[in-house]
Amino acid sequence: MIGLLRWRIKSRIETALQRLPIFQNLLTKFVDKLPEDVFFVEIGANDGVDFDPIYQAVIKKKWSGVYIEPQKSVFMKLQSNFLGRENIYFENIAITKEEMLVDLFSPNEELTKGNSLIASMHMNKGVLRHFSEFELRKETVQGKPFQYIIDKYELKNKQRTLVLIDVEGFEKDIIESIDFKSYKPDYLIFEHAHLTYDIHREINSSLGQHGYKIYLDTMDTLAILIRK
Questions:
Q1: I want to staple 166 with a disulfide (CB 3.0 to 4.6 A). Which of 44, 134, 186, 204 is the partner?
Q2: pLDDT tens-digit profile of 104-115?
Q3: pTM (2 d.p.)
Q4: In a domain, 103, yes or no
Q5: Does 31 reside within a domain?
Q6: What CATH number is associated with residue 221?
């Protein structure tokens, strides 16, 4: 129960932070200005609605893209939220360095009343570190590399692509798995709230070397590819 209390307090703090002008002036306004021909890939999509930075754009601009969510129960809710939408695709997988089965941990449903939007492959990363082992449940899910998404959805042939990553502290692993020599998304947004300063700086430095300009938000980092 201590873990649940910590999680609820942290969730309220994050909700308050996301309502600050600095958050809405950067990330939200940036997304609002993007054109209608964007193809998005959202890794760790959760239900695609709550606290989702691109939800309004997906609805109003009718963006096409793929939602990636490994939690089966949350994945079903995600699908139902976009029922009937054309050009919206879904992948019930985790993004891993290679194709494999992985264990995913999330708070017990009785603690979150069936609305768990938090999951991680590591019990001691992200929000899950506030929970005890007895407050977590384990789910084995299919993992596939990001290259699988690149190939299946032909990302290299898209006019503009936006990749969003929210994976409770595993952002570095996924970003490092992208072969930037063969494919560079035009825009990359990742949550840095659960990263250490050194890891966050390392990611930003690497992205800078690949031609991205970095902008920091309260909870997220925005990387924009500068084409020469």
A1: 44
A2: 876 666 555 444
A3: 0.82
A4: no
A5: yes
A6: 3.40.50.150
Q: Which amino acid is at 42?
A: E
CA distance 26 to 24: 6
pLDDT in tens, 76-89: 999 999 999 999 99
The answer to whether residue 12 scores a pLDDT higher than 60 is no
Q: How far is CA 197 from CA 61, 66, 170, 202, 207, in A?
A: 35, 30, 14, 9, 15
Other CB atoms within 10 Å distance of the CB of residue 197 = 8
Residue 198: which domain range?
20-96+145-225
Residue 2 inside a domain? The answer is: no
Nearest to 178 by CA among 4, 43, 14: 43
Integer Cα distance of 44 and 180 in angstroms: 21
Give me 63's structure tokens. 């963006």
- For the chain, the domain total comes to 1
Strands 64-68 and 136-144: unpaired
